[in-house]
Every structure is written in structure tokens, then in C-alpha cells.
Amino acid sequence: MRLRNLPTRLTTGGYILHSGLDKWNAPAEAAQGMHGMASQSFPVLQKVSPPTFLKLLAAGEMATGALLLAPMVSPVKAGVVLSAFSGALLTMYARTPGMRRPGSIWPTPEGIGISKDVWMAGIGAGLVVGGLTDDVRDVAKGTKKALTP
Q1: What pLDDT digit, counting tens, does each position of 12-21 carry?
Q2: Could you say which of 97, 99, 138, 144 is the most buried, measured as most Cβ atoms within 10 Å of its Cβ?
């Protein structure tokens, strides 16, 4: 792992891991609320019970956070996972009525909390692009072998 990735991986990974740990033992009311909003955006989730949904969400957050914190995971892999995670949150933001101003990407007061997850998309993209350009640079310098089919 490159030293420059340490601050973003520590802060993002720690935040997401903590969020998952908090959700793991959340009360039934929290499960109902989160499940309601998620299943409105992703109808396939209506088939999953709220407590099961919350456990799956918590496990996904803990896994994503731990992966970002693990130094042996490449920035490209960590960035792809973070981008997918934030993509799901931003999809929910885009699909949930009342989160955005009509005809706009900008949030309503109710949507600010989820719209802020766009920062994770930026960090994920930065990890992927940085990791890929580092790999190309290392191959060009001869410090790393190119992948061959």
C-alpha cells in the first residue's frame, strides 16, 4: 500500500466499519426504517425480512470497512469495492422520492445525509485510478513485471 493512500483508507474504512458494527445490534425499529427505505429503492429487498436485511447490511459494511483497512488489499481492489458500495447508496439516493429537489441532482434537507456518500465514490475512483497508474509507472520503471495473458 502506498503511504499516500493511508489517510483515505483509514478514515473511510474506519467510518464504514464502525457504521456496520453499530447496525449489527441495532433495534428492530432501525431495521424497519432502513429496510423500508432500501426496499423502496430496490424492490427485490421486499422479500427479505427487516432484521435479516439489517444483518446483511451490517456485514457488508463491516466487510467493506475491513477490506479498506487491510494493507495487503491493493488500492485497485479496495477502490472497486468502495465504488460499488457507494454506488448502491447513491442509487438509493437517486431512487428514493423526496431525497432530491425535483428535476435536480441536488438534495433536499432529507437527502443530505445520503447525498454526502458521494465522497466515497470519489475516494473509490481515486484509489482505482491511483493504483492503476502506479502499476503502469512501476512496469515502465522495471520495478514490477507486466501481466501477460
Answers
A1: 999 999 999 9
A2: 99
Angle CA 53–59–62, to nearest 5: 140
Distance in angstroms (rounded) separating the CA atoms of residues 61 and 55? 10
**Longest distance between any two alpha carbons in the chain, whole Å:** 56
Provide mean pLDDT across the span 52-69: 97
Q: What is the SS3 assignment for 107?
A: strand
CB count within 10 Å of CB 18 equals: 13
C-alpha cell at 78: 479496495
Residue 127's nearest CA partner among 67, 80, 95 is 80
pTM beyond 0.70, yes or no:
yes
Q: Compute the C-alpha angle 43/114/94, nearest 5°.
A: 50
Residue 89 half-sphere exposure, CB side, CA atoms within 13 Å? 21
List the beta bridge partners of residue 107.
100
Q: How far apart are alpha carbons 80 and 75 in whole angstroms?
A: 8
